[in-house]
Amino acid sequence: MVQVYTEHLCRRHYSPFISDAVLFRIFLLFTNIALSLILPVATGAFWKRVKFVHEQPLVRYTEDALLLFEGAMPGQERIWSSSQAVNEQFSDFFIPASIQAYEEDVNFDGKPDAIRFNAKVQGTSPVFGVKALLQFHYEISDDVILKFFGLAYAAHTSALPGGELYLDGELELRQLTPITDKKFNGEFDTPILDSSQSEVAEAVRGSEVLQFESIVKSYLSRNYSTTFIDRYPVWKPGAGNSFMLDWNLRIPTHQMITVRPQVIEMLKFAWIQFLATFIAIWFFFHWLQIFVFRYRIFDTRAVSDVQPKTQRF
């Protein structure tokens, strides 16, 4: 013989609606619900308040830049800007520069993996320090919708006059607070360096008499911005008649973004935590009920499925 099906026989316990046995069952139910809420909240895993998204941003160089070459003494600074208004206002300190910039797309996915910037100046006094600002348009449009104009700032000084400065690092996203998921974030989608403007105040926003300190301070006070992580600067000494800035900016292929999930996603995650805890506690309460009713701790009328029912006339 082969067993093909199994039926479980039950012993049913009956009790009046208002009795200790009914109150015990109600107490277990509400205790189970309460513990299923309290335990996930107490362990800090009930609400998914933030999540981390890894995406590759689309970064484009806007051809806006501001370069400052510092000499040995104050007053020997030389400046170059992509803005004609800035160059005209600081004509006494202006120096011509040969600029080259291009993008590198290694995996041919349409998103630059690196941006190379090269600036060369001739006939300048010995350069002992460099400050540079480049502007980019930063865009993410997958799980997070984010568009803004960002800056890359680099500064380096040396006790020896230089002939070349090589910078190589990553352009990373900087956040103060999480970004709302699936919501368009275009609050800062306005150029900071705008070469098309004829006024210096409009060509370089957030600046006080064109000070790098005020530009950086205003820029970093935003909720999200970009930061250039300069890991390995290389300063090459030179004679002082020419100087070259060779700047390689790498775009992270998996930029980590802190996101505030939507309410429906938070409820979905909370429901999973509640249900998992509820089942685990209910399994324990199930064995508690078996013990209580099997040993007749409460008065109940037990009816077995094995015993035949008596006929009443």
UniProtKB/TrEMBL annotation:
The chain crosses the membrane at residues 22-47, 269-288. It is a multi-pass membrane protein. Pfam families: TM231. It comes from the Eukaryota. The keyword Transmembrane applies. It is found in: Cell projection, Cilium membrane. Keywords: Cell membrane, Cell projection, Cilium, Glycoprotein, Membrane, Transmembrane, Transmembrane helix. InterPro entries: TMEM231 (IPR019306). Transmembrane component of the tectonic-like complex, a complex localized at the transition zone of primary cilia and acting as a barrier that prevents diffusion of transmembrane proteins between the cilia and plasma membranes. Required for ciliogenesis and sonic hedgehog/SHH signaling. PANTHER family: CHST5 PROTEIN (PTHR14605), TRANSMEMBRANE PROTEIN 231 (PTHR14605:SF1). Belongs to the TMEM231 family. This is Transmembrane protein 231. It comes from Dunaliella salina (Green alga).
